[in-house]
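Hello forum,

I keep getting stuck at the same step: I have a sequence, I want structure tokens, and every attempt I make locally crashes halfway through. Rather than fight my setup again tonight, could one of you with a working pipeline run this one for me? It's a single chain of 79 residues.
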Amino acid sequence: MTEETTKQNVEKALSEIRPFLNSDGGDISLVEIIDNKHVKVRLEGACTNCSLSLSTMKAGVETTIKKYAPQIETVVNVS
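Reply #2:
Ran it on my machine without issues. Output:
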């Protein structure tokens, strides 16, 4: 998968997740994709201080990104 395709797929995944985060006053943005395997995102708004942000990252964000881009190995929040 090309880097551009990976970026497009990660953005599709974030578009799927974003409405759920928005409904709680938060948001998410793509920061960087490294070596076509590692994704850095930034949780924003209410998500930055939420006690459930770690669960959101693992169960929501990482799972959805890997659904669209299965070669991704890690997803980290760089807030």
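The chain is about 45% helix and 25% strand. If your local run keeps crashing, start a new thread with the error log.
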